Amino acid sequence: MEKIAFYRKYRPQNFDHLVGQDHVRQTLLNALREKRTVHAYIFAGPRGTGKTSTARLIAKALNCIALTEKMEPCNECDLCIGINEGRLIDLVEIDAASNRGIDEMRDLIEKINFAPTRAKNKIYIIDEAHMLTKEAFNALLKTLEEPPPYVYFILCTTEPHKIPETIISRCQRFDFKRIDSRTIMARLSYIAQLEKIEVEDKAIEAIAKNAEGGLRDAIGLMEQLMIDKKLTFERVKEMLGISGNENIDEFYKFLETGDASNALQFIQTLYKEGYDLPQFSRELLEVLREKLIAAVSENKTDAINRLMAMTDFFQNALDKFKNAVIPQLPLEIAVIELCGYKKEFAAAGAQTTAEPTVAAKKIESKKAAAAVPDESSCELVELNITNINARWPRIVEHLKTPTLKQSFRNSRPSALKGNTLTLEFKSRFYMDEMMTVAHLAEMEKAFYDIFNKKVRIKGVLQKIEIAPVITVEAPAEAPTKTGAQGVAEFFGGEVVEE
Ligand SMILES: [Zn+2]
């Protein structure tokens, strides 16, 4: 027996089986019931979301001689069977990608004037319709203006913006959505069950996520990746270069605790084991996004700040893969920056002790505030705004809490009056993060370590977007004072001296 690809075999044969496009199904069924179908439709949407399958369903519904009460095709009459088997002459499917010119269109239009041979109605499905040439569209337009009563056009496209407005205005448009991964998983499980394929849930989940809303691709992948009626996560992982949730979880834990050394080791292992690092980054971003959404809904400011920073760094990493000389470098840089290193090295130069002790341990901010100064803090310098700016990276280095470091990096010292230092923040998120009592104490200790003076900190929101001070290359340069004018509002950052 001829082997039929799963996606063909499991194409929806009635509207009820159309997956993930409820709005389309409902509207079309209503139109059929109320005899309000139009002669030209545009089905727009990503690939593999059911556009041509739906077009075929309409073809059946418009021709079936025994429609059910729910307006479903019977799938038993000659016409239904003819369409299911792809041999009904009155259903014409054209791939505009390969038949895009005026000649093909003329040819098609000439035949339109002949009444249907066997069916009630002639249906023309034009796939990838946006590929038609301008002349072909013009020829089509004339037919759309006055179609014979038995002719129906369904234009399917992944790029509706490329279809002329004149055409669109004569069609009823349906937008097909990406199918969510849960729906795809359910469909894959259903097919696996009927085909007696032994599948691991995680394998199906990975395929569904990878398909980006396209059911056809997901079904195709499942068929392609199974071996001897078995589909394992191991195999999917290997073939798609994906890393799996435990890996992401493990990596996330390193990030959360600022454990740069283990995070870097982890990336190295991924690389050695042949994982696709951009793909890993995409999966990581997806997980971060989910966590971020959860943190926002629970109003957890700390977590939101941390996750925003992570998302930022790894989105940057993802953008850099294309030009990366060393494949793992973008991820490594993201880790190092996130854990609060790189920029400090650059600015502080040789005097920095590169020991990653800070990142290796998760230290509660309160404990950090109470801890004794480490050896690197023995040099003491005069407290003035020039020195504060010059020592900024070193001060950041003295902070223990990763989120606090992140906030610090998104602020700049703008003025020092007496012992009160004003910091300008790019966003309220970062300012709020800084202005907790524990964090202020931690910061003051950092200042104390370096300047041997108590410094009070006051935060203000910066009005004008400026580059974070951390990018200043020459540490000895005097700071600019532009920020003071840009003060938007004062935040109660006064702290009682210990
Ligand atoms: Zn039928």
Distance between the termini: 85 Å
CATH architecture of the largest domain: 3-Layer(aba) Sandwich
Quickly give the structural class: alpha/beta
CATH homologous superfamily descriptor of the largest domain:
P-loop containing nucleotide triphosphate hydrolases
Q: What molecules are bound to this protein?
A: zinc ion
What is the count of helical runs? 24
Share in helix: 40-55%
Number of DSSP E strands: 11
Cα radius of gyration in angstroms: 31 Å
- β-strand percent reads 5-15%
**Count of spatially separate domains:** 4
Major pleated sheet: 5 strands, parallel
- Remind me, CATH topology of the largest domain? Rossmann fold
Oligomer: single chain
Brief account:
With 498 residues, this protein is an alpha/beta fold.
How would you describe this structure to a colleague?
The chain has four domains: 6-175, Rossmann fold (3-Layer(aba) Sandwich); 181-240, Helicase, Ruva Protein, domain 3; 245-338; 362-490, DnaA, N-terminal domain (GMP Synthetase, Chain A, domain 3), CATH 3.30.300. The protein is 49% helix and 11% strand. It has 24 helices and eleven strands. The strands form three sheets. The protein has a five-stranded parallel β-sheet with strand order 2-3-4-1-5, with helices on one face. Helix 3 (51-63) packs antiparallel against helix 4 (78-84), helix 5 (102-112) runs parallel beside helix 6 and helix 13 (260-272) packs antiparallel against helix 16 (329-338). The longest helix has 21 residues, at 277-297. It is elongated, with a radius of gyration of 31 Å. The model is unreliable at 342-379 and 465-498 (pLDDT under 50). The structure holds zinc ion (ZN).
